[in-house]
Amino acid sequence: MSPSSAAGFLGRDSARGDAARRAAARRRGAARRRGALLGLSVLVALIVVVLAMPLFRSAVNHFALPLTNQDIIRQQAAEKHLDPALIAGVIYAETKFDPRPSPAGAQGLMQILPQTAEFLAKRSGATTFTTADLATPQVNIAYGSYYLRYLLDEYGGSRVLALAAYNGGEANVSRWLRSARAQGRDFRTGDIPFLETRAYVRKVLNAQAEYRRTYATELGYR
What are the b/e assignments for 55-72, b being 16+ CB within 10 Å? Predict the structure, then answer.
């Protein structure tokens, strides 16, 4: 091979090497850009998730542990010296904040029986009460809260006994208490013979704790 041929060959080889290096550099640059775009996409997705989390938690809470009429609940709790979460817990156990008449005729958010409402109306001195008023959240929660306060006073502040009476009736609770006292023992939740009432009491107490924890601001704890 002549010197001039060798030079031409080396020049072409060098050009091909430069082209290969430029192509490799372009591939590396493209890979870096793809990596940067992927990282940016992940970052944006994380930001969206973080921003959406409060809304997601709110939606989950509303579905699993609904709360409405919190202003009325706070008002009645203050007037009747009750824990607002206890009122919310009773509403949750009774209707899950979706009022509908029961087969027994109980009505409204707190499922007040008309005869119970009439008793409470007379006891509280109300003179204009009608059964139709129980469909109104303000009236229903007021009567339900009044009844809770009455039962708590009747049973020495015991939530277990008050809630058992709210669900199972005062006459039954009084009979259970007499039986327990005759046997010389305290009455506990597990002593409630009605399975439905026993489950109801536990459901309300669990819901009370959850409402206090989940809706501290809405129920006026802070």
Answer: eeeeeeeeeebebbbbeb
- Tokens 């005759």 belong to which residue? 182
Q: What does the alpha-carbon distance between residue 59 and residue 128 come to, in Å, rounded to a whole number?
A: 39
List the structure tokens of 91: 């509403």
Q: Which residues does the annotation mark as catalytic?
A: 94
157-167 in b/e form (b: 16+ CB < 10 A) is ebbbbbbbbbb
pLDDT digits (tens, 9 = 90+) for 189-207: 999 999 999 999 999 999 9
In the CATH scheme, what is the code of domain 70-214? 1.10.530.10
Domain locations along the chain? 1-64, 70-214
* H or E, element range at 214: helix 195-214
Confidence band of 131 (pLDDT split at 50, 70, 90): confident
Tell me the whole-structure pTM to 2 decimals. 0.73
Give the gyration radius of the chain's Cα atoms: 35
